[in-house]
């Protein structure tokens, strides 16, 4: 490495610190240094794009295994699943000749609205830290560098490039850094991707405290820090404070990147020492040598093999969470189910092509309906109906929308203006998922234009419906067809002949301080009349509603507006439950949703986004071929107002103060005595487990010793199943506010019916510690600690006490 470094010219060194295409840095052929290629891919290697644009390269051989996102891995609470996930990613990245896979993501689910929660490992720092290590190791065992992201404090998409994160030091250390620390110290991650947001006034990628003091200082990180695409940095601060590679800055010429010609000029003028550049290049070369970029015998990887597809199925099967199962509605018995009614927006939805930089060009994807058909064959009649709420105006269904957001999902382009005449553009880079718009602050006037291409499915009369409070007009291919002004909510209609298969430019303008919704009644209606689907629900042997979110809701770049199920699903679910109380509600999504019908539902299943084998795995769960064993890695609140950022008024586009401190997620709910809808760690099984005989290796722990906690678990049910034993720690008499419970261990154990097994976990001084702002170090205070073992944070089965002393 030093020999290579000594032979590089200044210009060649500079060429290694910035991109030279959308996803690569330069080669230096005379020294055998190859172009280093990166790829998005937290749950599948992204399709190939053009070298110098975001357009698809239109390859026909860039299909990849579409894995369940990391929320499903977190819900498995299984280190083996994390390793399996990483091994598939690494192997497929190598097969696509990628050198760096941009994942895994470890930012925490602080806010249910956060658009990228689905990409990450839940809300708890300990859980995320434990799972990221085997994933990183597995990726890198394939001669591919992992890139753990986004360092640090990327907890919202609202104004993500400029919002200023300002947690106190204890919160930073205890909550938002442990997963990164574990990835560095235990996983030996070769690269880390910085976040978009600021940290105390400067971009996180060039924060001296985050990068030089902590990452490269205290932790001794020897790898590469690279930017996400289009971050707000500057040359001097980025160079001096530890940024190694700059990717994706929005300029016309790669030489104009901050770490390109501007950096070379600063070095030549003496403003930036050459040693600073040498350190960056040394790190880059170390990564390249470690992953075998100059090795003729480098691993070649495999892609889309049956083992990878089976891995996708196994991972989601381990992560599906059975939230509720009153009267043992589940599992279904095939011999008793001759007719199934399937409803819901996710019944036939495919999720791979969406979400942002995590989109995957899947070789195939099994929908929930297809999975049921594959499982049941011709022996069971499966009827699929599309239900719609009975609101007078529902947004035009996405089936009719031809325009796509860069994340792959249907979109209406949203332009905001400063004036009612729409003369001066305020913002033009936004979008919404459907033709419903509400102003962000009621009583505050807004002036907007919504645009999309609509493609009718059949020729004939389309009855346009407009519900508005304010002023609105609709133009189709430049011709105004609707215009109305109202001081209160008003409904108007207009019929127009449109041709099936033809694309029309729809432009909806709105001025006002309320809302507007554009809907229609179209020929060849997509939706089943309410009376018909409710009658079918009453007579079916089983009713399954596949609902929840999609990547129109969970997606990069935009946070959700609220925690409600979209498309009026709550109304439909409530009516189905009234018609058939045994209706199974199966939800997809990476973030919490409200469930106002929860008391009426007997069976609720949470399936995340399931990857390419989702439908098959879901059928396995529903019919008992696989016993559900997933546990929630996030808290499901009753309502958004119960969450800390909202309750403390700490969610906006300017600055985030992290007012709740270390009380993230379940810690907040316990501190505030707020009952969640479903608690962190919750997940039922088709069998039952009994905990007994907790033992501690010692009742008096001192200094650097460890303590072993052991408990007996017995499967007292009639089915084989797996249980996740969770260890929470309580500091009985701390000098600082500490959570009532903190996760400090977990272990997943598979047991046959009637079988018992022992689960052991260890605790060390770091597990007992909090970050002491006075000594700037971890501090374990002498005193009593309570060990609590349970099946969730609320379901504690066994307890024990030990004391800690310094001698």
Automatic annotation (TrEMBL):
Domain of life: Bacteria
PROSITE patterns to which the protein is assigned, alphabetical: PA14
Domain (PA14): residue spans on this chain: 396-540
GO biological process: carbohydrate metabolic process
Keywords: Hydrolase
Pfam families: Fn3-like, Glyco_hydro_3, Glyco_hydro_3_C
GO MF annotations in UniProt: beta-glucosidase activity
Family statement drawn from the similarity comment of this UniProt entry: Belongs to the glycosyl hydrolase 3 family.
Name of the molecule in the record: Beta-D-glucoside glucohydrolase
UniProt source species: Shewanella violacea (strain JCM 10179 / CIP 106290 / LMG 19151 / DSS12)
Upper lineage: Bacteria, Pseudomonadati, Pseudomonadota, Gammaproteobacteria, Alteromonadales
């Amino acid at each position: 490495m030093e020999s290579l470094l000594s032979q590089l010219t200044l210009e060649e060194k500079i060429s290694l610190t910035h991109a030279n295409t959308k996803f690569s840095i330069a080669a230096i052929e005379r020294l055998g240094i190859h172009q280093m290629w990166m790829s998005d891919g937290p749950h599948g290697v992204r399709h190939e794009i053009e070298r110098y644009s975001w357009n698809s390269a239109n390859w026909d051989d860039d299909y990849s295994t579409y894995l369940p996102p990391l929320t499903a891995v977190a819900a498995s609470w299984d280190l083996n699943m994390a390793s399996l996930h990483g091994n598939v990613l690494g192997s497929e990245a190598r097969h696509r000749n990628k050198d760096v896979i941009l994942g895994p993501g470890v930012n925490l689910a602080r806010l249910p609205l956060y658009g990228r929660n689905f990409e990450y490992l839940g809300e708890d720092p300990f859980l995320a830290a434990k799972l990221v290590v085997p994933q990183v190791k597995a990726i890198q065992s394939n001669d591919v560098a992992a890139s753990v992201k986004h360092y640090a404090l990327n907890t919202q998409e609202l104004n993500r490039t400029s919002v200023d994160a300002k947690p106190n030091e204890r919160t930073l250390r205890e909550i938002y850094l442990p997963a990164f620390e574990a990835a560095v110290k235990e996983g030996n991650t070769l690269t880390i991707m910085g976040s978009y947001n600021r940290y105390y006034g400067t971009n996180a990628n060039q924060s001296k405290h985050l990068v030089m003091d902590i990452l490269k200082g205290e932790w001794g990180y020897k790898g590469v820090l690279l930017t996400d695409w289009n971050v707000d940095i500057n040359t001097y601060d980025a160079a001096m404070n530890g940024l190694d590679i700059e990717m994706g800055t929005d300029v016309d010429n790669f030489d104009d990147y901050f770490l390109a010609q501007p950096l070379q000029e600063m070095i030549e003028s003496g403003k930036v020492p050459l040693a600073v550049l040498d350190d960056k290049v040394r790190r880059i070369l170390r990564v390249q040598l470690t992953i075998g970029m100059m090795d003729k015998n480098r691993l070649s990887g495999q892609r889309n093999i049956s083992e990878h597809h089976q891995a996708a199925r196994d991972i989601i099967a381990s992560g599906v969470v059975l939230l509720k199962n009153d009267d043992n509605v589940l599992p279904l018995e095939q011999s008793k189910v001759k007719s199934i009614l399937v409803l819901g927006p996710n019944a036939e939805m495919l999720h791979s092509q969406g979400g942002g930089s995590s989109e995957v060009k899947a070789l195939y994807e099994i929908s929930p309906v297809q999975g049921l058909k594959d499982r049941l064959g011709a022996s069971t009649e499966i009827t699929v109906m599309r239900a719609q709420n009975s609101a007078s105006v529902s947004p035009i269904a996405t089936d009719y929308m031809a325009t796509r957001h860069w994340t792959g999902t249907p979109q209406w382009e949203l332009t905001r203006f400063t004036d009612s005449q729409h003369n001066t553009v305020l913002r033009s880079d936004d979008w919404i998922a459907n033709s419903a718009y509400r102003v962000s602050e009621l009583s505050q006037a807004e002036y907007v234009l919504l645009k999309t291409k609509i493609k009718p499915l059949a020729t004939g009369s389309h009855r346009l419906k407009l519900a508005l409070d304010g002023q609105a007009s609709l133009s189709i291919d430049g011709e105004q067809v609707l215009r109305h002004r109202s001081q209160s909510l008003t409904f108007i209609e207009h019929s127009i002949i449109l041709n099936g298969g033809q694309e029309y430019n729809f432009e909806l303008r709105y001025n006002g301080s309320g809302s507007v919704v554009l809907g229609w009644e179209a020929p060849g209606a997509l939706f089943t009349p309410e009376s018909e689907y409710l009658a079918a629900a009453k007579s079916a042997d089983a009713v399954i509603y596949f609902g929840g979110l999609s990547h129109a809701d969970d997606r990069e770049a935009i946070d959700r507006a609220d925690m409600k199920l979209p498309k009026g699903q709550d109304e439909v679910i409530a009516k189905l439950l009234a018609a058939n109380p045994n209706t199974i509600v199966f939800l997809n999504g990476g973030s919490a949703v409200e469930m106002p019908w929860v008391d009426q539902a007997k069976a609720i299943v949470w399936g995340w986004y399931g990857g390419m084998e989702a439908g098959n795995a879901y059928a396995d769960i529903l019919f008992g071929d696989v016993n559900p064993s997933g546990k929630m890695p996030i808290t499901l609140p009753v309502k958004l107002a119960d969450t800390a950022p909202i309750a403390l008024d700490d969610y906006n586009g300017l600055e985030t103060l992290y007012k709740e401190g270390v009380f993230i997620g379940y810690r907040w709910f316990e501190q505030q005595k707020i009952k969640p809808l479903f608690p962190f760690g919750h997940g039922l099984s088709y069998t039952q487990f009994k905990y007994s005989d907790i033992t501690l290796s010692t009742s008096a722990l001192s200094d650097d010793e460890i303590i072993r906690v052991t408990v007996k678990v017995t499967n007292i049910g009639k089915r084989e199943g797996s249980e996740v034993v969770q260890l929470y720690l309580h500091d009985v008499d701390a000098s600082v506010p500490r959570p009532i419970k903190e996760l400090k261990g977990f272990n997943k154990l598979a047991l046959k019916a009637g079988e018992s097994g022992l689960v052991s976990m260890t605790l060390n001084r770091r597990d007992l510690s909090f970050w002491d702002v006075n000594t700037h170090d971890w501090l374990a205070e002498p005193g009593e600690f309570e060990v609590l073992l349970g099946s969730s944070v609320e379901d504690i089965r066994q307890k024990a006490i030990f004391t800690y002393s310094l001698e």
